[in-house]
Structures
1.
Amino acid sequence: MAESEIHGPGLFRGLLCAQGLATLVVAALAAWPGGRDVALAALIGGGIATVASGWAGFQLWLHPGNRQADRAATAAIRAEIGRVAIVLLLLWLTLKHWPEARQGATAMMLFAGFFVVQLAGWIWLARATGETNVDSNRNG
């Protein structure tokens, strides 16, 4: 491991900051050509990704019972199952209670906001943990 890698609470804070910033940027960019509803949809989509990642990050890096090495695998499974359940529940609630989110540019930006913010989190995590370093001898 490189010494510049971030661990535990730093990963949690950094992930949420990266995703929060990405959410605001996507919503601002969507507001310019699309208007209020499109920007709100991008904000909601990014918010769903951020909330779900916050749950998973808490389970992985902050929950005191999950810091033991023998609980790491089950903590990761609970974190991922919880993250998927949160995403599905929040998307269902959004689509059920906001009919405009089911059609046109609003629907597109709801899902685009979600995926862009999710991607921003993955990229930040890969860079923060050193997972972007490619070993040139890996393939032979």
Note: The helical segments are 9-34, 36-62, 72-97, 104-128.
2.
Amino acid sequence: MNQRFAIAAGGITVVFLVTIAIALQLMPGPLKSTDYLVVGAIATFVSMLVLFVILTQTVGTKKQIFTKEKPSKDED
């Protein structure tokens, strides 16, 4: 697995978990099942937004995350 991909996946996971923790603290209790649904939806939205920003910032640069580097063409 590509190291940059692993770092991006780990970062997105951390963002997801932190967003869940913050949203659960902000929700007034007692929590119902629909409250957990809302918290999960918010965390998913924030995580996908962060992923979108990462991908748009790396497109067209050598720091692309989700593409393999093309080998250079060596002429013998």
Note: The CA atoms of residues 16 and 43 lie 5 Å apart.
